[in-house]
Amino acid sequence: MSDLQKEVSELERKSATAARLFDIRRIIGGLFVVYGVIVTIAGLSPSDADLKKAEGVHINLWTGLAMLALGLFFLVWMKLRPAEAPAAPEAEPEREPGADAG
Fold it and tell me: 98, CA 20 to 30 Å: which among 14, 58, 65, 90?
């Protein structure tokens, strides 16, 4: 394998790694999981005033669990279908001058 081919394959590998690293699903999923944990913890022991405001519904608990579920969905989706680096555009074959004249 020539040095040029080795360099190209190394750049392709780095490009694929960068595409997976900056996958938006990782960012969205991570944020939803973190905020879901925080809101779920806040909803585990609501005050009487909070329950009265929410008409007896443990809104923080249910919202936190929904955020956790959504965040985990994004992370599982990312794991099952990882991002691939975009394929390099293929060069068109060169035509001879006057070949289009029909």
Answer: 90
- pTM beyond 0.85: the answer is no
- Residues 20 and 37 sit within 8 Å (Cβ to Cβ): no
Look-up of token digits 């680096």: 85
Measured in whole angstroms, the distance separating CA 25 from the mean position of its chain's CA atoms is 1
* 53 residue type, one letter: K
Q: What is the pLDDT of residues 38-97, one digit of tens each?
A: 999 999 988 889 889 889 899 999 999 999 999 999 999 988 887 665 666 665 666 666
User: For residue 79, which of 31, 28, 33, 25 has the smallest C-alpha distance?
Assistant: 25
The C-alpha atoms of residue 23 and residue 15 are separated, in whole angstroms, by: 12
Nearest alpha carbon to residue 42 among 24, 22, 29, 58: 58
Distance separating alpha carbons of residues 73 and 8, to the nearest angstrom: 35
